[in-house]
């Protein structure tokens, strides 16, 4: 049986033999970023279960291997939800038949549409336990909502892709789930007009919690959008039922578009679940998938720059998150990289065949002075370099 | 008394040369070394501790900041970054051999971008200055520490400051997009930008709340938010801390997320009422201020639901504001709490721990017992939604015994916070004030791990070196990186 102590023992042995470890939960995101060359796999999947759930204190603690669905079900039963709306990317990363774990979601800092209004996964990690590459169990944060005691290793470990420590336990802030959800659908806008509308919606006083644009071919992949011809610009409100009606109504007035459509709670939830899980992205089996993050107003410029390549695409986060899919070759990757850099943004190669993932930068290189700090921080946490070596950067 | 590391003798000996060297890097009047002029920099919001620095550098640009840090690095000079000097934990307390690098001349707003809902500001812009710059267009910067009129955004980043509205809007870390920072070597780095969630390690998250120990922040890209249509407050007073605590639980369980949920105990109510005449009920043991947002109808509906919830707990009084003016009156007492306590006691310490909210009645009972045994009065103000407790311990600074008792009382409260599952500091930071309590919350190897992270940024331990971590015996700051 796997325990925190057995993880310590595994790390001690790996340090002694200088044999790298592939750190994962259920491996549902193994296809992300660079391939890890490791003789052994250390999975936290067996380290499962919710340790603490105090709905009145908005706090939940669970072991890293707990299936995310188990946590989602537990909080839903108490009328609460996970704030960052983490996606299930199995449509893109492949069905493994196993559920993604809380540890995997935190280690990759994946957030869904609500991120634009309510923060990322990393914003709601209140406490963490991890085994470092020094085979020490360390804690950061705790089980309270406000905590600035010492350096924030919760944020450093969240999104570190298992390269700084093996996360064993996570404490999350949760919030009451909204009573109702409504969506205003604006059909037929091009990406530039859509992002202008989404910016206006996000800059309104109505608390928009989702803002996405889907081109026609992406619309066609979302069952809930059947009947919408052409593109769809989606604006979401989540609140008490009366507030949703009022706020969506005010937004509809604001845009004064005759063909705007309103979706009720049930339809809204289905559509936003698909957006969350990137199902609108028309990625062919052999395609690579990129996630580009830019200032929202630059989303259309990314699409413009890449238009000659004919990549599948859609926009979330008000235009700031650009989902792209296309040929898994170095030239296409370089074009995505160039477009993202020109817009002052960042990018992640989310999915690609190993040969491409091993050959290119999967995230942007850091400037030399920062890359030096990255190496020092890695050495401080994992001096023997045994935890997921090479996952983010070559030689690290 | 807080122990400080011994000044480096060679630095003290070379004082004049260092001052001249730094003066050459800065504009006219950008370097202060005259003892009389150093006086304003010898302390911060934790005014019980004072130490004039070697000199104060006031750069006007990131490049000047970089030049100063590079010089200090090359010459082994310690550096203490400073914003407005409002830290309540002594985060900006100088060292005798250190150069204070003050950000007050970097006070320009560089860019406001409504379509992308962000603003780029220099580190010396005040917290309220950001909101003031965008409020005419209906926007605001969300974190609102009590010192927001004076405190600077660079300091907010370094302390990860909170405020009364964190329950809905989060703390500083949740409202940042990017930073421009300078390393101790004088390298200028851009972290993040106007986009969300940079790939790679979350430097933005690690640097936020790092208390000036890792880098010097010179520019900040903040998220600005469109304000709600309106906001209104209500006041509910109860017969005991337990009952008020139960009402808080019931509110959170109802699914309503109030934008603020503040708790005051009897001494706090009395102090604030005497000061502000806000109409607080003096027969109550505990009082809540609850604020909601939305249209007038939404406010009515939410305040109606909250009133119904509060009525189940036998309130002594329930007052729902009917206008913006009445809401201001309700807030007036709470916002004047520090002044109010200052009026009934010559001096006070403002503590800052966080507890699981379910522990509130227990913790308040224990604090009252401690108050009796130390013979010092205490008033408690509490961000009830997120568990952040601010006991104000009253003492007399002219009486050394009274001050030491207040410090011990404060330390006992913070130990209690950790004992019940909370932490030493919710929003003020560790600074020097709570530095020696860190082993109460962390194991020795956990502190060593955090020290190693500091070493990764600042191998010579020149940046704010005496803060956050207990001094090592003998004082060996540089830790080996090898396994």
Entry keywords:
heterodimer; A: 396 residues; alpha+beta; Uridine Diphospho-n-acetylenolpyruvylglucosamine Reductase, domain 3; Alpha-Beta Plaits; six-stranded antiparallel beta sheet; 14 helices; B: 483 residues; Uridine Diphospho-n-acetylenolpyruvylglucosamine Reductase, domain 2; 4 domains; five-stranded antiparallel beta sheet; 17 helices; globular; disordered C terminus
Which SSEs are present, and which pair or pack?
The complex is a heterodimer of chains A (396) and B (483).
Chain A: H1 4-17, E1 21-24, E2 40-43, E3 50-54, E4 59-63, H2 68-77, E5 80-82, H3 90-93, H4 102-108, H5 115-118, E6 125-132, E7 137-141, H6 153-157, E8 165-176, E9 180-187, H7 191-202, E10 208-214, H8 216-219, E11 232-239, H9 241-255, E12 261-263, H10 265-276, E13 288-293, H11 299-306, E14 312-316, E15 321-326, H12 330-342, E16 346-351, H13 354-357, H14 368-381
Parallel strand pairs in A: 1-2
Antiparallel strand pairs in A: 3-4, 4-8, 5-8, 6-7, 6-8, 9-11, 9-12, 10-11, 13-15, 13-16, 14-15
Helix pairs in contact in A: 11-12
Chain B: H1 9-13, H2 15-23, E1 31-32, H3 35-38, E2 55-57, H4 62-75, E3 78-82, E4 98-102, E5 109-113, E6 118-122, H5 127-134, E7 139-140, H6 153-159, H7 166-169, E8 176-182, E9 188-192, H8 203-207, E10 216-223, E11 225-226, E12 231-238, H9 241-253, E13 260-265, H10 266-276, E14 286-293, H11 296-311, E15 317-320, H12 324-335, H13 337-344, E16 347-350, E17 353-354, H14 360-374, E18 378-383, E19 388-395, H15 400-419, H16 438-441, H17 444-457
Parallel strand pairs in B: 2-4, 3-4
Antiparallel strand pairs in B: 1-2, 5-6, 6-10, 7-11, 8-9, 8-10, 12-14, 12-15, 13-14, 13-18, 16-19, 17-19, 18-19
């Amino acid at each position: 049986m796997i325990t925190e102590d057995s993880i310590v023992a595994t790390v001690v042995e790996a340090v002694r033999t200088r044999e790298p470890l592939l750190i994962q939960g259920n491996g549902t995101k193994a296809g992300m970023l660079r391939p890890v060359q490791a003789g052994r796999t250390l999975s936290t999947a067996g380290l499962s279960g919710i340790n603490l759930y105090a709905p009145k204190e908005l706090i939940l603690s669970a072991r890293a291997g707990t299936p995310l669905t188990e946590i989602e079900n537990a909080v839903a039963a108490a009328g609460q939800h996970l704030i960052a709306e983490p996606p299930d990317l199995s449509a893109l990363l492949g069905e493994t038949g196993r559920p993604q774990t809380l540890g995997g979601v935190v280690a990759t800092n994946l957030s869904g549409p609500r991120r634009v209004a309510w923060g990322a996964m990393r914003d709601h990690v209140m406490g963490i336990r991890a085994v470092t590459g020094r085979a020490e169990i360390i804690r950061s944060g705790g089980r309270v909502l406000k905590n600035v005691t010492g350096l924030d290793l919760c944020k450093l470990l969240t999104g570190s892709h298992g390269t700084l420590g093996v996360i064993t336990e996570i404490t999350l802030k949760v919030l009451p789930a909204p009573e109702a959800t409504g969506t205003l659908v604006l059909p037929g806008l091009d990406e530039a007009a859509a992002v202008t509308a989404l910016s206006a919606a996000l800059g309104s006083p109505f608390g928009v919690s989702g803002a996405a644009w889907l081109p026609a071919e992406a619309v066609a992949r979302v069952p809930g959008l059947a009947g919408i011809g052409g593109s769809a610009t989606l604006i979401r409100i989540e609140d008490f039922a009366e507030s949703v009606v009022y706020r969506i109504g005010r937004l509809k007035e604001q845009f004064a578009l005759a063909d705007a459509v309103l979706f009720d709670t049930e339809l809204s939830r289905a559509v936003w679940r698909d957006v969350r899980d990137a199902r609108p992205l028309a990625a062919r089996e052999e395609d690579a998938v990129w996630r580009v993050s830019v200032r929202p107003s630059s989303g259309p410029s990314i699409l413009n720059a890449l238009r000659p390549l004919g990549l599948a695409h859609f926009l979330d986060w008000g235009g700031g998150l650009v989902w792209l899919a296309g040929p898994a070759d170095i030239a296409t990757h370089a074009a995505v990289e160039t477009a993202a850099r020109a817009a002052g943004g960042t990018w992640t190669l989310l999915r690609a065949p190993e040969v491409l993932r091993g050959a290119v930068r999967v995230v942007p290189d850091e400037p030399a002075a920062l890359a030096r700090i990255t190496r020092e921080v890695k050495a401080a946490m994992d001096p023997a370099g045994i935890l997921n070596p090479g996952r983010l950067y070559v030689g690290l | 008394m807080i122990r400080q590391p011994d000044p480096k003798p060679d630095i003290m000996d070379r004082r004049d040369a260092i001052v001249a060297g730094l003066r050459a890097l800065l504009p006219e009047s950008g370097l202060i070394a005259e003892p009389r002029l150093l006086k304003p920099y010898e302390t911060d919001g934790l005014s019980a501790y004072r130490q004039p620095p070697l000199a104060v550098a006031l750069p006007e640009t990131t490049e000047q900041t970089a030049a100063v840090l590079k010089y200090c690095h090359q010459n082994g000079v310690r550096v203490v970054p400073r914003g407005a000097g409002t830290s309540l934990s002594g985060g900006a307390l100088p060292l005798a051999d250190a150069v204070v690098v003050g950000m007050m001349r970097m006070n320009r707003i560089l860019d406001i971008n409504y379509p992308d809902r962000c603003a780029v500001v220099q580190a010396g812009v005040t917290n309220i200055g950001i909101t003031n710059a965008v409020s005419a267009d209906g926007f605001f910067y969300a974190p609102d520490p009590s010192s927001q009129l004076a405190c600077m955004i660079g300091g907010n980043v370094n302390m990860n400051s909170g405020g009364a509205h964190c329950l809905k809007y989060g703390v500083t870390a949740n409202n940042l997009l990017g930073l421009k920072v300078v390393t101790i070597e004088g390298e200028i780095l851009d972290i993040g930008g106007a986009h969300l969630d940079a790939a790679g390690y979350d430097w933005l998250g690690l640097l936020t709340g790092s208390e000036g120990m890792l880098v010097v922040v010179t520019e900040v890209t903040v998220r600005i938010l469109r304000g709600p249509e309106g906001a209104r407050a209500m006041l509910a007073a109860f017969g005991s801390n337990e009952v008020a605590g139960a009402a808080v639980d019931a509110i959170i369980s109802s699914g309503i997320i109030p934008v603020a949920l503040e708790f005051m105990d009897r001494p706090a109510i009395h102090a604030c009422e005497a000061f502000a005449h806000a109409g607080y009920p003096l027969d109550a043991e505990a009082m809540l201020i609850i604020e909601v947002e939305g249209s007038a109808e939404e406010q009515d509906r939410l305040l109606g639901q909250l009133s119904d919830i509060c009525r189940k707990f036998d309130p002594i009084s329930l007052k729902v504001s009917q206008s913006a003016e009445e809401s201001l009156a309700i807030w007036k007492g709470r916002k004047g709490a520090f002044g109010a306590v200052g009026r009934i006691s010559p001096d006070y310490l403002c503590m800052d721990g966080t507890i699981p909210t379910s522990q509130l009645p227990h913790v308040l009972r224990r604090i009252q017992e401690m108050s009796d045994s130390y013979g010092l009065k205490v008033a408690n103000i509490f961000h009830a939604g997120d568990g952040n407790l601010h006991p104000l311990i009253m003492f007399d600074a002219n009486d050394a015994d009274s001050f030491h008792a207040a410090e011990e009382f404060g330390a006992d409260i913070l130990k209690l916070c950790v004992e019940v599952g909370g932490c030493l500091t919710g929003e003020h930071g560790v600074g020097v004030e709570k530095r020696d309590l860190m082993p109460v919350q962390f194991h020795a190897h956990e502190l060593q791990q955090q020290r190693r992270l500091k070493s990764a940024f600042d191998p010579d331990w020149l940046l704010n070196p005496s803060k956050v971590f207990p001094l090592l015996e003998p004082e060996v700051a540089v830790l080996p990186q090898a396994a």
